């Protein structure tokens, strides 16, 4: 089967540092894959109004852009499901990425080449956090995120660098996504949706790997939407994935409604 890969990036304009990071990530991804007909990028903006549409279409016309109305806190899972359902006729593999995650070109290709029909590729480790000063230096001085230049910065590892989860970036096939029912979009705000996705992979005994290669997380201001009450709510939903007999697994086609919040 020929691989047709869609890289999905959900986004909500909350802080200027996040938009700066997004533009830098897109600048690199569009450069890395400019000659690839089978690797495309989907940007899903969610908010009460489109804030980056015109600028994004001007700077990156090759990117698939969609706006989905959401007056509530950010819903990462929902954005993923919206994009999967809209583009699944044209793509059979999907990469789920945050807007501030980068790898050098050769690592992206290694990562994408690992994708198989019946396997999940979770985030490359170590995943290195870049501090504010170094992030600003990279964006100002390195138009292209290249291995040799980044190595010279000696970005340190930490315990967090080796934490294994479905967060930051992961990839799998449409076949697996339909099997597990996509992402649990009941989880809104920050946290636990990636743990639920990982638990679903375990429940279905689907093979997975955490490839050994560097990935990088650009610095941004702390999210203004971190909410302990919502995190507790998401943790409650996560327990249903851990004990799957209590979880009503919905078909993927019944998720990802782009008008989910239209009546709010």
Which characteristics define this entry?
single chain; 264 residues; alpha/beta; five-stranded mixed beta sheet; three-stranded mixed beta sheet
How would you describe what is shown here?
- The protein is of the alpha/beta class.
- It has one domain: Spore Coat Polysaccharide Biosynthesis Protein SpsA, Chain A (Alpha-Beta Complex).
- Helices cover 35% and strands 19% of the residues.
- The chain has 9 helices and 10 strands.
- The protein has helices spanning 16-32, 53-59, 76-87, 105-113, 132-141, 147-151, 174-180, 193-203, 228-242, and strands at residues 5-11, 39-47, 64-69, 93-97, 101-102, 120-121, 125-129, 169-173, 208-209, 212-217.
- A 5-stranded mixed beta sheet has the order 3-2-1-4-8, sandwiched between helices. The protein has a 3-stranded mixed beta sheet with strand order 5-10-7, with no helix packed on it.
- Strand 1 (5-11), helix 1 and strand 2 form a beta-alpha-beta unit.
- The protein starts with a strand and ends in a 22-residue tail after the last helix.
- The mean pLDDT is 91.
Number of helices: 9
Strand content: 15-25%
Number of strands: 10
Taking all Cα atoms into account, the compactness measure Rg is 18 Å
Average predicted confidence as pLDDT: 91
Question: CATH top level?
Answer: Alpha Beta
**CATH superfamily (homologous) name:** Spore Coat Polysaccharide Biosynthesis Protein SpsA, Chain A
What CATH calls the topology is Spore Coat Polysaccharide Biosynthesis Protein SpsA, Chain A
Helix content: 25-40%
Given the helix and strand composition, which structural class is it? alpha/beta
- Taking the alpha carbons of the first and last residues, their distance comes to 42 Å
Described by strand count, sense and barrel closure, the largest sheet is: 5 strands, mixed
The CATH architecture category equals Alpha-Beta Complex
The main sheet orders its strands as 3-2-1-4-8
Spans of at least 5 consecutive residues whose pLDDT stays below 50 are none
Would you list the SSEs in sequence order as H and E? EHEHEHEEHEEHHEHHEEH
Number of self-contained structural domains: 1
Shape: globular
């Amino acid at each position: 089967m020929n691989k047709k890969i869609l890289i999905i990036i959900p986004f909500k304009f909350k802080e200027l540092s996040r938009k700066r990071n997004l533009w830098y990530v897109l600048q690199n991804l569009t450069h890395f894959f400019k000659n690839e007909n089978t690797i495309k990028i989907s940007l899903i903006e969610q908010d009460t109004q489109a804030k980056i549409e015109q600028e994004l279409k001007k700077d990156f016309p090759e990117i698939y852009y969609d706006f989905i109305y959401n007056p509530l806190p950010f819903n990462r899972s929902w954005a993923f499901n919206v994009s999967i359902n809209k583009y699944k006729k044209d793509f059979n593999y999907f990469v789920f990425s945050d807007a501030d995650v980068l790898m050098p070109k050769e690592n992206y290709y290694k990562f994408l080449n690992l994708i198989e029909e019946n396997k999940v590729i979770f985030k490359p480790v170590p995943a290195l956090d870049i501090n504010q000063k170094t992030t600003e230096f990279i964006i100002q001085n390195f138009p292209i995120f290249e291995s040799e230049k980044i190595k010279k910065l000696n970005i340190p590892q930490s315990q967090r660098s080796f934490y294994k989860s479905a967060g930051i970036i992961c990839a799998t096939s449409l076949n697996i996504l339909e099997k597990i029912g996509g992402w649990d979009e009941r989880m809104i705000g920050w946290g636990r949706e990636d743990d639920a996705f990982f638990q679903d992979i375990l429940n279905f005994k689907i093979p997975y790997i955490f490839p050994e290669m560097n990935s990088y997380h650009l610095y941004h201001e702390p999210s203004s939407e971190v909410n302990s009450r919502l995190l507790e709510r998401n943790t409650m939903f996560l327990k249903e994935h851990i004990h799957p007999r209590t979880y009503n697994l919905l078909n993927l086609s019944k998720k990802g409604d782009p008008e989910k919040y239209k009546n709010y």
